[in-house]
Design a protein that fits this description.
The complex is a heterodimer of chains A (271) and B (228).
Chain A lengths: L2 E6 L7 H14 L4 E5 L7 H4 L10 H6 L4 H4 L1 E2 L6 E4 L12 H14 L2 E5 L6 H8 L3 E6 L3 H14 L4 H4 L5 E9 L1 H5 L6 H8 L3 E6 L2 H9 L3 H4 L4 H13 L15 H10 L1
Parallel strand pairs in A: 1-5, 1-6, 2-4, 2-5, 6-7, 7-8
Antiparallel strand pairs in A: 3-4
Chain B lengths: L21 E3 L5 H14 L9 E4 L7 H13 L4 E5 L36 E4 L8 E4 L3 E4 L8 E4 L3 E7 L2 E4 L9 E6 L3 E4 L2 E4 L12 E6 L2 E6 L2
Parallel strand pairs in B: 1-2, 2-3, 4-6, 5-7, 6-8, 7-9, 8-10, 9-11
Antiparallel strand pairs in B: 10-13, 11-12, 13-14
Classes of the chains: A alpha/beta (271), B alpha/beta (228).
Chain lengths: 271, 228
């Protein structure tokens, strides 16, 4: 049975697109058939992060409007065979997205993929509402800082009331993903603690992704961070989160300060 | 001089009005169907008394005589037939009830037993109240088994009980109930109000923060005390 998963947050800039690309690629590497769908009409980014921006011909709006068929709009990833992208439109308005059209597209995608990952835009308006409307599962991306936590809480409330599943009395399976976690600032008490975040959001934690330069490097190159540098800390954390999503039980590792080799050597010399 | 008085004309005012009628849809065999009708009447005698009934004949193919016979059968059971539908106009005669058309389905509740539902005086929420959600319950107390997030609000006619952290707004006794109170396991509220008298987070005593607390109204002053 295909699963529709929305990657949402409320707050902007916390790592939704990064997460959609990273976990989409990780799921594909684990053998699943995955499509990542960009719902950010007018401000699309998923195509850039996936490195497909020069191959976009048709987009989600074209399919909704019936101008193009779904196979014409889907872009297959060059590195992973079972990963595809359905980009958003850059020129059209988000008003062109209709609930009925999105429902049709999602239903069609369910037939040929195991996972449909919906990259939600920021905010709580139409684009975000439509991205979550047909979701079975949700990942709420949260930065360890107060405004992001409150916005995530708002979005969780909406997942419990404005989705088709909620309206039918069923539950959307929700997971919190903490991103841009900075162990140095956490140690100095400058960041809201993970326990506090989970106490406020009252939703299970699926992973903690450390702040890292690798994320920026990967998006500049046009590859998901799990593909560009699989050994990096964020990539490993994304892989763990993906395995948890697939049902594995893995102990949660809180990222600590990266002690580079040079630092270690310097430390020894000082001793 | 002749005065001709024009007789005032009484205008016949035609107005439309809609009524709701039960529809009986007889099926073959008619005898069996009539037995079902009898069984319904036996279960609730007097149920059809005075209620207009329409006979939908689209499920059976009856001659004019048979229709007359059926109508008589129904009326013998003390059921008045208001009209007929689902049958060709040629089959009807002036003695039969008129032909109706354009009926729309209407959900009728079989309120055979008047169930007196006790009005709930207390609302129980077993999930946390999320930011942006607003719970309004003017009839009585509100109990939350969970936390109330920052940016959420609870408005109650009675008291408010939060078995968790109260981070949002709690407004109790909004109908003029100054005896209403607010209880929570951890007080970090943005705003507390009882019967219109409110206090914001700024005015909250620092020593009380994050402790179990209750808020009550003493005259015009809100007293917030620790619960342990």
């Amino acid at each position: 049975m295909a699963k529709v998963l929305v990657v949402t947050s409320g707050k902007g800039g916390v790592g939704k697109t990064t997460t959609t690309a990273a976990m989409g690629a990780a799921l594909a590497q684990a053998g699943q058939k995955v499509v990542v769908v960009d719902f950010d009409v007018g401000l699309r980014n998923l195509d850039l992060v996936m490195g497909a921006e020069r191959r976009v011909v048709f987009d989600l709006i074209n399919v909704v409007q019936g101008i193009a068929k779904l196979p014409q709009a889907l872009i297959r990833d060059k590195r992973l065979d079972n990963l595809s992208l359905l980009p958003a439109s850059q020129t059209k308005d988000k008003d062109a997205l209709t609930e009925e059209g999105v429902g049709r597209v999602i239903a069609e995608l369910r037939k040929s993929f195991d996972w449909v990952l919906c990259d939600s835009p920021a905010g709580i308006e139409r684009g975000a509402m439509l991205a979550m409307r047909f979701a079975d599962e949700a990942i709420i991306v949260t930065n360890p800082e107060v405004s992001s936590v409150r916005d995530s809480d708002r979005i969780i409330g909406m997942l419990d009331s404005k989705t088709v599943k909620a309206e039918k009395g069923e539950r959307v399976n929700k997971h919190v993903l903490i991103t841009r976690y900075d162990p140095g600032r956490a140690a100095r008490g400058e960041m809201i603690s993970i326990d506090d975040i989970l106490e406020i959001l009252a939703t299970p934690l699926i992973g903690i992704i450390p702040e890292s330069q690798d994320v920026l490097r990967a998006s500049n190159v046009g590859a998901p961070v799990t593909v560009n540098n699989p050994a990096s800390a964020p990539a490993r954390a994304y892989h763990d989160a993906t395995r948890r999503l697939l049902g594995e039980v893995i102990a949660m590792m809180v990222p600590n300060e990266r002690r580079g080799l040079m630092n270690l050597l310097r430390g020894r010399r000082a001793a | 001089m002749e005065q001709s008085v024009e007789a005032t004309r009484q205008l016949v005012r035609l107005r439309g009005r809609s009524y709701v009628a039960f529809v009986f849809s007889p099926v073959v065999p008619i005898v069996g169907w009539l037995e079902e009708v009898d069984a319904t009447i036996a279960r609730s005698p007097g149920f059809f008394a005075g209620k207009p009934v329409v006979l939908d004949l689209s499920g059976v193919d009856l001659s004019q005589a048979a229709i007359g016979h059926l109508v008589k059968n129904i009326e013998q059971r003390n059921i008045r037939v208001l009209g007929l539908e689902g049958v060709d106009a040629e089959k009807l005669s002036p003695e039969l009830p008129p032909l109706l058309s354009g009926g729309r389905n209407f959900l009728v509740q079989q309120a055979e037993v008047e169930k007196r539902e006790a009005k709930p005086a207390s609302l129980l929420l077993d999930k946390p109240v999320r930011s942006g959600q607003s719970v309004v319950f003017l009839e009585g107390d509100v109990t939350v088994l969970g936390s109330v997030s920052s940016g959420a609000e609870i408005v109650a006619g009675g008291s408010i009980h939060v078995y968790g952290t109260l981070r949002g707004r709690a407004m109790a006794g909004v109908n003029g109930n100054s005896a209403a109170r607010i209880y929570c396991q951890k007080i970090e509220a943005e705003l507390l109000a009882i019967d219109g008298y409110y206090q914001t987070a700024e005015e909250l005593d620092e020593k009380l923060r994050s402790r179990p607390a209750q808020a009550r109204l003493d005259g015009e002053i809100m007293k917030i005390t620790a619960l342990n």
